[in-house]
Design brief:
Length: 143
């Protein structure tokens, strides 16, 4: 059975101080992420450490919410993996930059061209792999 939240509860949450602690439900709704995902992220990112009160109830500080917002953005909008975000956090001393720098156009073009910088043998292997891929997709009859 679905419960309808009173307008008093909604207006109370909206009027909460920006420095106030947030429950996992409030953070989940604000970030549009299920609560179990937030708990999972706590296991993967030790920088996210909400306060836990009686019964294990979590209270997130404003800086925790900001960190979770940046993690969410990196994972969902920028396409990072969890390991990628962990690596980024290690490289930046436990912080997640608010804006991830875009690669320079020359770097992006170089990254997009397969086979550059891998040598002749690498290019041969890449060519063979591309042929095998096409065979598996049914584009080239097997020999």
């Amino acid at each position: 059975m679905a419960t309808v939240e009173s307008t008093d509860a909604v207006s109370e949450r909206a009027s909460k101080s920006p420095d106030a602690f947030r429950t996992i439900r409030e953070v989940s709704e604000e970030l549009d992420v299920p609560q179990h995902v937030l708990r999972f992220w706590e296991t993967k990112f030790n920088q996210v450490r909400p306060l836990k009160r009686g019964g294990g109830r979590r209270y997130y500080r404003p800086e925790d919410v900001d960190l979770l917002r940046r993690i969410r953005s990196l994972l969902y909008a920028d396409g990072y993996t969890i390991r990628g975000v962990q690596k980024l956090m290690r490289e930046t001393g436990g912080k997640v930059p608010g804006v991830v720098p875009e690669p320079e156009p020359a770097e992006a073009a170089a990254a997009a061209k397969p086979g550059d910088g891998i040598g002749d043998r690498g290019k041969e292997i890449l060519s063979e792999l591309e042929i095998l891929r096409d065979m598996l997709r049914g584009r080239i009859p097997s020999q």
